[in-house]
Amino acid sequence: MEPATMAWTAGLLGAGLVYWFVWVMGAAEVKGKRAVDLKMGSITRDKVQDKYTQYWSFFRRPKETATTQASADKVPAFVDTFYNLVTDIYEWGWGQSFHFSPSLPGRSHRDATRVHEERVADLLGAEPGHRVLDVGCGVGGPMRAIAAHSGARVVGITINEYQVNRARAHNRKAGLDAQCEVVCGNFMAMPFDDASFDGAYSIEATCHAPRLQDVYGEVYRVLKPGRLYVSYEWVTTPLYRADDPAHVEAIHGIERGDALPGLRRQDEIASIAQEVGFEVVQELDLALPPSLPWWTRLKMGRLAYWRNSLVVRVLTLLRIAPKGVVEVHEMLYETAQYLTLGGETGIFSPMHMVVLRKPATAAE
Ligand SMILES: C=C(CC[C@@H](C)[C@H]1CC[C@H]2C3=CC[C@H]4[C@H](C)[C@@H](O)CC[C@]4(C)[C@H]3CC[C@]12C)C(C)C
Ligand SMILES: C[S@@+](CC[C@H](N)C(=O)[O-])C[C@H]1O[C@@H](n2cnc3c(N)ncnc32)[C@H](O)[C@@H]1O
């Protein structure tokens, strides 16, 4: 073969390979976000690396994060930074629902995710005419599933403005913008009237609150008397041993890679709910058998992680993705290992479910 022909062939093959990696293989399971569109939320390109460094130094020692009032007060701002850094990577590599679900035999991850979300709507008895609150709504995957399944109107709140814009765009695209509303705000001080919701839920979101009382108290305030609140909580289970260094390392790994001010114990949830006035209707760890493992989705993609890591490196080199994305991606990869360990050892659950009722007799 002529050297020029060889060079052309090699060039074309190389371009084809880059195309395959970035556009074909690098796309999300729910193809809402392409690798070439990875931004870092509302952080400008030149600030990404600095913001990541600031995030990391704040959450590096998780247990200390919420021990003083001063540092607890800073948590929402750092959680906001965290979601600026990770939202696009989550959408690209996971989809529009930022949570786990028990695996379902013979069904896709997308189905398992939807079933886990629809369960919330069914427990709430959500129906057309109801106004339901999504506490920590992300980019609105659960909100759209619940609105479509129940016919209820859903109002979501998130601390992160970039997510608000993403969620609104997804709602419009899904034709659900008349039914779904998204508000930017802090779930520990919500901009909603007392007794203005027929139901409320939170999916893997309240773990970001330094004090669960603050968010549960707000949900209690905005719920109508007699109505339900369903929450999927991140907790350590009774298998967790604080004197086992391997357990401690896994839980710290989960906390610092997920912007958590300190995981709560499973047995703390119901008593905090009662403390703010709720009746506990049901409490169940949905991660326990007969549920199939939620962490297999994280484990199965070693090749996918390797590919994604290469994609973000190439995109950073080409200056398509901002500097700092590689570090954020590495942090997420490491977090995935700790989450898997937490699941396999049974010391951690991301789906400890509580169904709570605001007493019918509660003053409005
Ligand atoms: C509830 C929370 C988020 C839970 C999950 C949605 C995310 C936790 C860890 C995330 C991920 C880890 C590895 C990433 C991978 C390296 C990358 O290539 C593609 C995206 C990941 C799979 C990413 C996806 C979302 C998670 C599974 C917390 C924050 C309270
Ligand atoms: C892991 S995501 C889950 C999102 C959504 N529930 C889902 O399952 O797709 C956690 C969400 O909680 C929100 N959040 C965290 N702290 C918050 C706060 N103080 N006020 C409002 N939202 C908050 C984040 O912005 C994010 O949207």
From TrEMBL:
Gene3D superfamilies: Vaccinia Virus protein VP39 (3.40.50.150). The keyword Transferase applies. Its EC number is 2.1.1.-. It catalyses: 24-methylidenelophenol + S-adenosyl-L-methionine = (Z)-24-ethylidenelophenol + S-adenosyl-L-homocysteine + H(+). SUPFAM superfamilies: S-adenosyl-L-methionine-dependent methyltransferases (SSF53335). The keyword Ligase does not apply. InterPro entries: Methyltransf_11 (IPR013216), MeTrfase_SMT (IPR030384), SAM-dependent_MTases_sf (IPR029063), Sterol_MeTrfase_C (IPR013705). Pathway: Steroid biosynthesis; sterol biosynthesis. Keywords: Lipid biosynthesis, Lipid metabolism, Membrane, Methyltransferase, S-adenosyl-L-methionine, Steroid biosynthesis, Steroid metabolism, Sterol biosynthesis, Sterol metabolism, Transferase, Transmembrane, Transmembrane helix. Catalyzes the methyl transfer from S-adenosyl-methionine to the methylene group of 24-methylene lophenol to form 24-ethylidene lophenol. It holds the Pfam family Sterol_MT_C. The chain crosses the membrane at residues 6-30. One of its GO terms (molecular function) is 24-methylenesterol C-methyltransferase activity. GO terms for biological process: methylation; sterol biosynthetic process. Belongs to the class I-like SAM-binding methyltransferase superfamily. Erg6/SMT family. This is Methyltransferase. Residues 82-359 form the SAM-dependent methyltransferase Erg6/SMT-type domain.
